[in-house]
Design a protein that fits this description.
single chain, hpI Integrase, Chain A, alpha+beta
Length: 363
């Protein structure tokens, strides 16, 4: 049956594997979308209802309220497109994507894209907060979901996209530091294979992910430098790290103990170093350093640069920071810094009073 101005309604026949034919239990509708004929089930065997479904479908598409695929796109399809985007564009955060998707998968798996409303996202946020997740972690998860929807919308698979509001992270800046004496205790309790890379992180401020991927070809012992390639640098700039003193000794030792089966500078019995969080936490507990994260070594190294008198511009270059705002988040003033500043101020005032020639007022 042709419905003028909209398309047609018809009874579709299907073919069995044995060659016999059978009729579809529901009427089908056919319509044009972007110059191409589309066909789908109306979901009913009532002719009048099928005609109304055809008209409603065409009106939705014409008004831009839906795409032709929208009813079929599921959360899993969004994630598949997101992973492909990360792979094609060689995003450096691809290793973290699985971690952020883990909780999203548990909550949204099986959902159609159009079923994920803003209220569902808010429920997810509340659930993650109840689980004790930090705002920064939840934001990374929300950003992944938001990106997945944006990709599907750009591809024309969906029209609807829920509003996803990121959380405030101003009160979520970590202030974990490991001072030199504490690091010695931590280092003493680490398993042997982790000691070199942990000391390397503490001396350089390099990200642990980049340090684990360092290869022999990046080390130039003759020139006494490490040439960090662009693909290992989060800010998409190569970095040259000079080697001297203890850092040079550490890299030379790792070089001399390299494995021919493994291209990485730091390894564990010839295998790349993987997730060391459990071993790190155990060593921290033994050293009395509860709540310290591996990334706190990077934060500590940056603060050590500044305390040692290294110019901030140089410290930023060594740590690989491109923006001052992010660098300042790492170079956090500690309570000890404030006490030291107060002591220096009081001493200055005492000395200033001593040096001032006070003339008594005559009556």
């Amino acid at each position: 049956m042709i419905v003028k101005g909209f398309g047609s309604v018809y009874l579709k026949r299907h073919k069995h594997k044995d060659g016999s034919w059978f009729e579809s239990p529901a009427l089908w509708i056919s319509f044009k979308y972007h110059g191409r004929w589309q066909a789908e089930s109306s979901g009913t065997n009532n002719l009048e209802e099928a005609v109304e479904k055809l008209k409603a479908r065409v009106n939705e598409l014409s008004a831009g309220r839906k795409s032709v695929k929208e009813d079929k796109i599921r959360y899993e399809d969004l994630v598949k497109q997101l992973k492909l985007d990360y792979k094609v564009n060689k995003k450096r955060s691809i290793d973290s994507l699985g971690f952020y998707l883990k909780h999203l998968d548990q909550h949204f798996k099986g959902f159609k894209a159009i079923e994920i409303r803003t209220s569902d996202v808010l429920e997810y946020v509340a659930k993650r907060q109840d689980e004790g997740a930090a705002n920064s972690t939840i934001n990374r998860e929300l950003s992944a979901l938001k990106r997945a929807f944006s990709l599907a919308r750009t591809a024309g698979d969906i029209v609807y996209q829920p509003h996803i509001q990121l959380l405030d992270e101003s009160d979520n800046v970590r202030q974990g530091f490991v001072n030199p004496a504490e690091f010695v205790k931590l280092h003493d309790n680490l398993p042997g294979y982790l000691k070199p890379i942990m000391e390397f992180l503490y001396l350089t401020g390099m990200r642990s992910g980049a340090a684990k991927k360092l290869e022999h070809k990046h080390i130039d012992l003759e020139a006494q430098v490490i040439r960090l390639p662009i693909e290992l640098s989060k800010n998409k700039k190569g970095l040259t790290i000079p080697l001297s003193g203890r850092l040079l000794e550490l890299v030379e030792s790792a070089w001399n103990n390299r494995s021919l089966e493994c291209p990485h500078l730091f390894h564990h019995n010839g295998e790349p170093i993987g997730d060391f969080r459990k071993a790190f936490d155990t060593a921290c507990a033994a050293a009395g350093l509860r709540g310290i994260l591996p990334h706190d070594l990077r934060r500590s190294a940056i603060r050590n640069f500044i305390r040692a008198g290294v110019k901030e511009s140089v410290a930023m270059r060594l740590s690989g920071h491109r923006t001052r705002s992010v660098f300042d988040r790492y170079n956090i003033v500690s309570e000890d810094d404030l006490i030291d500043a107060s002591t220096k101020l009081q001493q200055f005032l005492v000395e200033a009073i001593k040096d001032d020639k006070v003339v008594p007022i005559k009556k």
